[in-house]
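Researcher: Next sequence.
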Amino acid sequence: MRILSPDGTVLRDWKPRPDDRANPEIDRGHLRDLLRGPLDVQWGRGVTQVVPAGRGALVHFADGRQEGFDLVVGADGAWSRTRPAVSPVTPRYTGITSVETTLDDVDARHPDLAQLIGDGSVAVYGENRSVVAQRNSDGRATVHAQFRAPLNWHAHLDLTDPEAVRSSLLTRFDGWATPILDLLHRGSSFVHRPLHVLPASHTWTHVPGVTLLGDAAHLMPPLGAGANLAMLEGAELAEVIVADPADLDEAVGTFEERMWARAGRWATITTAGLERLVSPNPADAVALFDDVQPG
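Model: Next structure:
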């Protein structure tokens, strides 16, 4: 992990020592394939609504079909179609937007940027904005430009026009060192990701036949906790069901209570972290990493 100032000065450069705890990462698609295994996953069956029905729930699909289930687990992300079955709460915009681009075959095609990113990631923090680049698998690197802006900041842009988005980003980060701007300049396409969150205290009155986990239950800033919580929750939900299959409703209620307490803590932590990482004082971001890095 390397941190630079907008003028390119290296402020921190961490490399793991032999006895440091590892923080392994994996691309989401690869992880999904590992977890899927032999499961019968039916892609493309869009859900429009989940309706509690007695001790179970009825799922309405986009193709007009309906199916009943003993338990529906809404693990369908920020804009969950399952959440309204248990909670009226919707995500709110944080005031911070992320625009993502990708550098393919970074070592061969962009060796200078590969050196800038290093073996892990590089982050640059300025006033109310940041650029973070991270190595992924298959020789790729992802680049995230984050900044405070109204939700409709792009009203004058065609987000499907890469050159228009690139030009807007380069203007927004004008004055930053050329190698940092090149992380944005060389991206081939851009994805707009406004950051939304659910309240840190989000809970709901238990509804038989329906529950939530992951972002559907506790959407929080993308600082490394959300996906890990979702996987842990999936395992915990399975465990409580297997331990008490005769009383599915009680098992799910036990799971929810445990999930709410832990997710609330992490939502509070990540919300405060995002405020420091994209803040008027870039020193706050650097200090945040000093708090968590070994040594």
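Model: The chain has a mean pLDDT of 93. The longest strand covers residues 92-103.
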